[in-house]
Structures are given as structure tokens and as C-alpha cells.
Design a protein that fits this description.
Shape: elongated
Strand content: under 5%
CATH architecture of the largest domain: Orthogonal Bundle
CATH topology of the largest domain: Endonuclease Iii, domain 2
Number of strands: 0
Low-confidence stretches: none
Distance between the termini: 20 Å
Mean pLDDT: 95
Number of helices: 11
CATH superfamily of the largest domain: Helix-hairpin-Helix base-excision DNA repair enzymes (C-terminal)
Structural class: mainly alpha
């Protein structure tokens, strides 16, 4: 089976299994998603969702966060881990939004990448979820499942998984219809948490992809 055909079947199966898949970070504005996705690095979305209301209670706007002392931001976000670097990035990002973007989050992928603390994963999440543009968010679940299923491969060493997020993203762009990428990545997250776990042996016996997945025949 060719990869494009495999990708379409995976999209169809996961859409049936997780019809309401959406971002698990809670936000009601683009800048809040930027903050949350930065805090989510090496932290659970559930923990981030617990912490950000405390941050927004004290700093309810981009302008307020831009003026805040990074040390004060760190005090609030410390439970998410890596508090100092995350607070520094959030502070710098909000200042740049105020100073260069009139307090608005840009809807352009390349412009988002210019913001402190924003990488390809964050930029794709924002353009996909907030602005409804084609996006592929290569988080740990996406990378793990894309390798296990056989949608991507390590060009240098086919015996090893491809772990570089950008390389995984570029390979997926070639086989996934642009309008399906964002939703598929959200479904990868749910499937990765519930079935194709990283912490335990995958539950291939109850996986909706077990007749398609490369790893189902070897795990």
C-alpha cells in the first residue's frame, strides 16, 4: 500500500474513532494559546490548564504580560516546569507582540516563528486551531504514531524511527491532504494517550489501525 493511500485510511479510521478531537489546551484568544503551548513543553496539558487561569487573573491581557516582571511570571508558572526559561520567553513574546504587531497575534506561519519561544509545532498549532489554515503539529504523539504506523521513515537509517520534528512534518505534508492535517494531529494525541502509548506496550489488540499499522505485525 502506498503511503498516500495509507494516510487516507488512517485519517478515515481515526476520524471515526475520535470525531470530536480538538486541542486539549484551553484558551479563548490566540495569545493565550501561545502562552499555553509554551508552558506545555515537558508538562501535561492538564497541568497547564490549571495554571494559566492564575496567570491571566493577574495579567489579563497581552499588554499586562508584556509589562510584567519575568520573575513574577515565573512564580506563577513554576509548577509547569522550566519556569525561568518559559517566563522569559512568554515575557519577550508578549513584548514583541505589543511593539511589532500592535498587540495582535499574526496569522502568518513565518511571522509566528519570529516570536520568542515559538517553534514550528507552536506556529502550526496557532495557524491551524486559531486561523483555520493547513497545519501539521509534530508533537511527541504525532512523531511516535507516524513512525509506528509507517507514514514516515528515517532516510539515513530505516531501522530507526525518524525523531526530527521538522523532517516528520515535511514527510507528512507530502501524503496528507492539507485540510486534514490539523485534525489528524489532534486525533494522534488522543490515540497516542489511549491506545498507542509511549509508556506501555501499544494496545494493538484494540487499535482501530491494527490491520494497517506496520508495528502491529512486529510488536
Amino acid at each position: 500500500m502506498r503511503k498516500k493511500e495509507l494516510a487516507l485510511r488512517v485519517i478515515e479510521r481515526l476520524a471515526e474513532a475520535y470525531p470530536d478531537a480538538d486541542c486539549t489546551l484551553e484558551y479563548d484568544d490566540a495569545w493565550k494559546l501561545l502562552v499555553s503551548v509554551r508552558l506545555a513543553a515537558q508538562c501535561t496539558d492538564a497541568r497547564v490548564n490549571e495554571i494559566v487561569p492564575l496567570l491571566y487573573e493577574k495579567y489579563p491581557s497581552i499588554e499586562a504580560l508584556a509589562k510584567a516582571d519575568p520573575n513574577d511570571i515565573e512564580e506563577i508558572v513554576r509548577p509547569c516546569g522550566l519556569g525561568r526559561s518559559k517566563a522569559r520567553d512568554i515575557s519577550a513574546c508578549m513584548r514583541m507582540l505589543v511593539e511589532q504587531y500592535d498587540g495582535k497575534v499574526p496569522d502568518d506561519f513565518d511571522e509566528l516563528l519570529k516570536l520568542p519561544g515559538v517553534g514550528r509545532k507552536s506556529a502550526n498549532l496557532v495557524v491551524g486551531d486559531v486561523f483555520g489554515k493547513p497545519a501539521i503539529v509534530t508533537d511527541t504523539h504525532c512523531i511516535r504514531l507516524a513512525n509506528r504506523i509507517g507514514l514516515v521513515k528515517n532516510e539515513k537509517n530505516p531501522k530507526l524511527p525518524e525523531k526530527d520534528p521538522k523532517k516528520v512534518e515535511m514527510q507528512l505534508w507530502k501524503i496528507i491532504p492539507p485540510e486534514e492535517g490539523n485534525a489528524l494531529c489532534h486525533r494522534f494525541v488522543l490515540h497516542g494517550r489511549e491506545v498507542c502509548s509511549a509508556r506501555t506496550k501499544p494496545f494493538c489488540d484494540r487499535c482501530c489501525l491494527n490491520d494497517l499499522c506496520k508495528s502491529a505485525f512486529t510488536v
